[in-house]
Amino acid sequence: MKIPFVKYHGTGNDFILIDQRARQWLSPNDEALVASLCQRRFGIGADGLMLLQSHPELDFEMVYFNSDGRLSTMCGNGGRCIVAFAERLGLVKESCRFLAPDGVHEARIRPDGIVELHMADVAGLEELPDGACVLDTGSPHYVRFVPTSEGLDVVGEGRKVRYAEPFAEAGINVNFVEARGRQLRVATYERGVEDETWSCGTGVTASALAWAARHPEVHSPLLIDTRGGRLEVRFRRAGKGFTDVWLCGPATFVFAGEVEVSL
User: Fold this and answer.
1) Of 38, 64, 147, 261, which shows the fewest CB atoms inside 10 Å?
2) How far apart (Å, rounded) are the C-alpha atoms in residues 263 and 73?
3) Domains in the chain, ordered, with CATH?
């Protein structure tokens, strides 16, 4: 069987996208197949895979798998890429509303191609004894501020946190954040990928909000550099938390094709 797909990336965070409105090509039970498609040496290669499905009340539904083949929580860069894919399909134009793993999201596509994604509100964050903090931006994130990200062993240090208690069972994404004047640089180790990714949308959002929580003088928006490019996070303060949070950046089409699989 040949499955049609497209590939997109959001600042180097890359995804396989499949249109399932007319036919169900994959199901949540296809963990091994999804993992094989995301495998970079023997498959298409990606940090994750998304299914675009019909929804009775919204423009579409986003179903997200990590590269290990398992269904996962919200992916911010993935959300921006699936919006660009929906526009490519002619399903949406300048704006849309869709269902994601963490609920309903609104998105806007600017004339310059930048996709702005409305993220979930964040009620607050938890300060940890090691000086880091934990918060949920649709996916759980650990944020540690570091003097410099140059030469940092993101994979080694990230695994120490991801597999330590109390995070080992469910996993957590680990972000290392360097302040560079009015900008931040973020490096992220992602659970489910079990490696450093070139960018993480929910991680960038978590890092920006964690920085703003510790620095009341900081104003929206914040610019964040990742290994794969630059993103922008906008927000409004709401007590100890944040509302009206937007993740903004490019969502780039890479190529389209068909992949032959055996079911």
Assistant:
1) 147
2) 26
3) 2-119+251-260 (3.10.310.10), 126-246 (3.10.310.10)
